[in-house]
Specification:
Elements (H helix, E strand, L loop, with lengths): L2 H20 L5 H10 L6 H17 L7 H11 L1 H4 L26 H9 L5 H4 L7 E5 L14 E2 L5 E4 L9 H4 L3 E3 L2 H10 L6 E4 L6 H9 L5 E6 L2 H4 L2 H8 L4 E5 L5 H4 L7 E7 L14 H4 L2 H19 L2 E11 L8 H10 L4 E3 L8 E3 L2 E4 L1 H4 L4 E8 L1
Parallel strand pairs: 5-6, 5-8, 6-7, 8-9
Antiparallel strand pairs: 1-3, 1-4, 2-3, 9-13, 10-13, 11-12, 12-13
Helix pairs in contact: 1-2, 1-3, 1-4, 3-4, 9-10
Length: 391
């Protein structure tokens, strides 16, 4: 593909990304992959160049753009060489003319900028939400020594964290194929460390998803004890058993729950768990480095639904913990509505049964009854973490 054709390809992909963002459809990564799957003529260099253009444009646009062309024209306004590629040649975008719509630059839609500012995230700290993330892995102590660590990494503040540059093909290494390492952001690893899961305990990962945190808990417990991993998404939860086998993580039971009927399926666990991790569904504002188009998908009404779900899950989790046990609440969000406000509201509702018991972590900034991790201050994804203890 010629450079101008790469620009046109990026515009076509961006049109699809914008349409799916408006309809809460497939993520940008998948759209890029599927677009190239249907165009086998594009080489690896073409794919890499087009992908870079697509994600440069997504990161640069604050409000959702009018079109893929409008978003690429924003980049062209700042890059004369890119503007020259709008030349109307075969497979190239038409020339730039007066009156062409140009997308607006920014960190996020205006209402989200205001919500972040009210939560203490503004200026360089907000801009850092759109940096490219490095690749973090967790050394799996259940498989330690099964292979050498891939070269080019360095340790992180997490107990078993290791960091590689963005774009490292870690899944092609023996360390990954043998289960010695798991891809997991350092912030996510610290959230698991806050649980302080011990060998022989009974632990619930209430919103387990694909099981990344479940596997970290299993390693912390040295494979001794019981972990119940639950979720309402069958597809995501089904990925956990093969991952657990590769990681050498025994003692994990999975249980599919019906939304809004979770307590019925967990009657046998009421008051039994030593610890419950609630990695609650959230806006994902702390993960924009990896999913920058996610900020175009979020709406105020959707945020309200997340907040209501988080509150309900916290109350459910509180019924599962034994006296003296621990409840850890985590969101990959930097909005106070999903973080410190949510944790404070839980303590208010349960003032006679629970107290704040936040674990000391090697990173993060105190935020109400919990701790906030951010890309700007900590080099991790954005997280809010709070721990409570049952009285």
């Amino acid at each position: 593909m010629k450079p101008a054709a790469r620009v046109q390809a990026a515009i076509e992909i961006l049109d699809l990304v914008i349409a799916t963002a408006r309809n809460n459809g497939a993520p940008a990564d998948r759209i890029v992959a599927e677009w190239f799957k249907a165009r086998r003529f594009a080489g690896s260099g073409d794919r890499r160049a087009v992908r870079d253009l697509v994600f440069r444009a997504i990161r640069r646009c604050g409000e959702i753009p009018q079109s893929g062309r409008a978003s690429m024209l924003l980049l062209a306004c700042e890059d004369a060489a890119l503007a020259d590629l709008f030349d109307g040649s075969p497979h190239a975008p038409p020339p730039i003319v007066d009156g062409d719509a140009v997308a607006s630059a920014g960190v996020a839609p205006a209402w989200l900028i205001e919500a972040l500012a009210r939560s203490g995230i503004a200026g360089p700290e907000a801009e850092a939400l759109l940096d490219r993330a490095p690749l973090d892995v967790r050394i799996n102590t259940l498989r330690q020594g099964s292979a050498d660590l891939p070269p080019g990494g360095e340790g992180t503040v997490a107990a078993h964290g290791w960091r590689y540059p963005h774009g490292t093909r870690i899944e092609d290494t023996p360390a990954w194929s043998t289960g010695m390492i798991e891809v997991q952001d350092t912030g996510s690893q610290l959230a698991c460390e806050a649980v302080e899961a011990q060998s022989g305990e009974s632990v619930i990962d209430l919103c387990a998803g694909g099981g990344g945190k479940t596997l970290a808990l299993a390693a912390a417990m040295d494979g001794q004890g019981t972990i119940l991993a639950t979720d309402t998404n069958r597809g995501r939860l089904s990925r956990l058993p093969p991952r657990a086998e590769r990681a050498g993580a025994p003692g994990i039971e999975t249980r599919l729950l019906d939304p809004n009927r979770e307590r019925d399926a967990l009657e046998d666990w009421l008051g039994r768990a030593d610890a419950v991790l609630v990695d609650a569904p959230c806006s994902g504002t702390g993960t924009w480095r990896r999913n920058p188009e996610a900020r175009w998908r979020l709406s105020p009404s959707q945020l309200e639904r997340y907040v209501a779900t988080q509150s309900r899950l916290l109350d459910l989790a509180s019924a599962l913990v034994r006296p003296g046990g621990r409840l850890v609440y985590v969101t990959c969000s930097l909005l106070d509505a999903e973080g410190t406000d949510q944790a404070s509201a839980f303590l208010t509702r349960h003032r006679h049964g629970w107290q704040s018991d936040m674990a000391a972590l090697p990173a993060g900034t105190p935020r109400g009854p919990g701790v906030r991790l951010s890309p700007y201050h900590d080099g991790t994804d954005g997280f809010f973490i709070a721990r409570f203890r049952a009285l």
